[in-house]
User: Fold these one by one.
Assistant:
Number 1:
Amino acid sequence: MSPDVTKRISALAEKYYPEMVRLRRTIHANPELAFEEYATSSLVAETLEKLGLEVKRGVAKTGVVASLRGSRSAGDSVVALRSDMDALPIQEATGLEFASKNPGKMHACGHDSHTAIGLGAAMILSELKNELRGEVRFLFQPSEERNPGGAPYMIEEGALDGVSKVYGLHVLAQADAGTVGFCPGEMMASADELYITIKGKAGHGARPHHTIDPVVVSAQVILALQTLVSRNLDPFAHGVISICSVHGGFAPNIVPPEVKLVGTLRAMSKEWRRYAHERIHEIVNGICYSARAEAEIKIDLGYPVLVNDEAETVFAEACARELFGEESVFRAERLMGAEDFAYYLEKVPGTFYRLGIRNEAQGITADIHNDHFTIDESSMKAGAAMQAYLAVRGLEL
Ligand SMILES: [Zn+2]
Ligand SMILES: [Zn+2]
């Protein structure tokens, strides 16, 4: 690849910017929820077919996988670039001219722009095809927002076969448009759902000695579960347990038969995640035993911990500096949120990074998952250029 490749990629990102805006607005106006991305994936597949890529539709139900093979030597490296396509069940309140036409559905997490950026990167890389070696594989996946996520199904259906590196990005409302942020190592948490039912013995509230009161037991359980983080986790490590819903009882003088607790467990390491599951069983069962109550514990596994490969993150950060200059690169913070890109990173080294989309002067400050969320669209140039450059450089190594 010629030494002026960063300039050429930036110029190509500029050239395809109007097309990215058109695609993003089309997708934004027609949001589809997890595993229902039919119109979105058709638009994606058609756009990629027009570019002459090998396109596979219907991967993981509504996903698309496309290959761009470089014509320079037969290199067998494969770099994968991932975009997620699903919207959220939110009623949009932005008032934008291209606001959602689907009531109760909205692209409030920026996946419309992730998709347009993925297509923009495909346009840029198609123009560099003669100088590319190896294969760039574009993964347009369904359902990032809803457990169990589209990623495990994409992997099951071969999306990562032969892939040596994988890169993905997510918009960040706290960073200015045109900047990119990186975080080596653990970046996002695992997220498991807890469903605990405390079963006692119902009876008269004035005769508690004839009952086994699940309300008192659940109060003890809720407090004791807080020791999971305060007493069972290295103070230098991170984890959260929150019981977010408590349901039981119906009258002031009746001890109810049971109380249901629902909550979330977030871990930053898979070892502690496993340990926390064990301790939840011990703590809940132990307290129930002492009260002669019974517990039913169900832990629904969510996405795993997202761990960025250290070397790949350093590499990507260096690429960003070459492309945009030092002032546009920041250190991204860890988040206790979860992201199914974690599944790809369990299989293949790579990195997941942040793309700033904020523009205070234009009033673009709302956070993701908010009904006023939108982006400074110029950030898509940086996103597409970055993804394209990572593929170019990643294939050269
Ligand atoms: Zn989201
Ligand atoms: Zn998202």
Note: The domain at 5-188+305-396 is CATH 3.40.630.10 (Aminopeptidase).
Number 2:
Amino acid sequence: MRHHVVILGGSYAGIAAMRRLAKNPKLNITLIDQHPYHFLQTEGYELISSNTSFDETIVSLPALCANYDNVTFRHRKVLSVALNRNVIILNDREEPYDTLVIALGSVTKRFECDANVYNYSSGAKSLRGALKLNQFFQDELYKRLESDKKAKENFNIIVGGAGLSGVEIAAGMQHFFNRYYRSNALSCATLHIHLIASRKTVLNGMHQGIIKSATKRLKNLRVQVHTQCRIASIHAHETLLTNGTKIPFDFMIFAGGTTTAPCLKTLDIEQTPRGQFIVDEYLHAIGHKNIYIVGDTAALKDKKGHPLPPTAQTAIQSGKLAATNIIRSLQNLQLKKADLKMKGIAIALGGKYAAIDLQYIRFYGYTAYLIKKLIERLYKWPLWWLASKGYRKLKTCPI
Ligand SMILES: Cc1cc2nc3c(=O)[nH]c(=O)nc-3n(C[C@H](O)[C@H](O)[C@H](O)COP(=O)(O)OP(=O)(O)OC[C@H]3O[C@@H](n4cnc5c(N)ncnc54)[C@H](O)[C@@H]3O)c2cc1C
């Protein structure tokens, strides 16, 4: 019997692991995801601000997996992992594994105090969430186009969290509004985006040049940035910040942090206080040599032991390394130690404007935008090419 590797999560980390493992014909691989597509979160800002259609931000998982004779894709929701029996509990069956790769990413952390907030809020980590945001804004613009009275009413959007995703969303949305204002003579002067940053600046921890460029761009776009404060409470369409400011709001976007996928909450493996799973230098779950944890689910570190931020690039590197180590362990070879690196960071800042930090050199504006687009395409196009090849092998439409 072939060694059975089960990969939970078909996104950056899970796909990277799957593609490397699939090259080994001695392995039987099952990739499980709750969606039949890989959502390109790194392009979510384009979808939210109507610069792209949703089919441009996904890769079909059944079609991608159909390229490999030793890979099975299961479109299922993982309910839990039974560590004592080496099985995954799915909604309709149990999936046994010899080796497990957990690549379930993370979910948007929400504010718990007002149950109603879920009706007028969204996160941007899922295709559904990004679409909800986009449709909501399109609808609001339409109402303003229809009615002069409505166009004069204040409309406040709060983006909670001024890290990479919060800044990209705030800049993208504001640019979207401003563009409508210019092209349709539609007054968006009463539409306000409030970006809440808990630290002294947006993009805390990044290079000063990047912070300066992003701050200037946000100001030029008219985003209202509130620094050194957090959301203290939310009640009936009003937010109270820790500095005492009250902001009435119509819609809220959570971008202030993430937490573990709910199905892993009760998993008896050591976690950090933020809910990421601790891994050893080979990316094993602590105490489990047949379980690898990769991507946002793991508390990844660089070679010096410094924590790495959750990004697609470290997710891909960790997925590849887990696959290499699974193959090496079956060949009784010495496992490879993790040497994960942040090679740079690219931030979209609304329209054709971005900032890129490649550590030794930084780019701003249109050049940075073009580089970001190139990076996105170099990731997406090979997957699309594989998916289109796989699609031809499938008899029925995968999605
Ligand atoms: C707006 C935004 C912009 C970003 N921009 C950048 C950027 O420019 N560069 C960068 O490097 N990073 C960026 N990131 C971060 C990056 O997207 C994440 O770090 C990356 O997606 C992590 O990949 P992953 O494979 O670990 O998990 P994820 O991409 O979160 O994927 C997890 C997968 O697991 C599946 N899953 C979860 N729970 C279940 C379940 N119970 N059952 C079955 N399947 C399940 C999900 O459907 C999903 O396919 C951005 C994030 C956001 C939100």
Note: Residues 366-393 form the longest helix (28 residues).
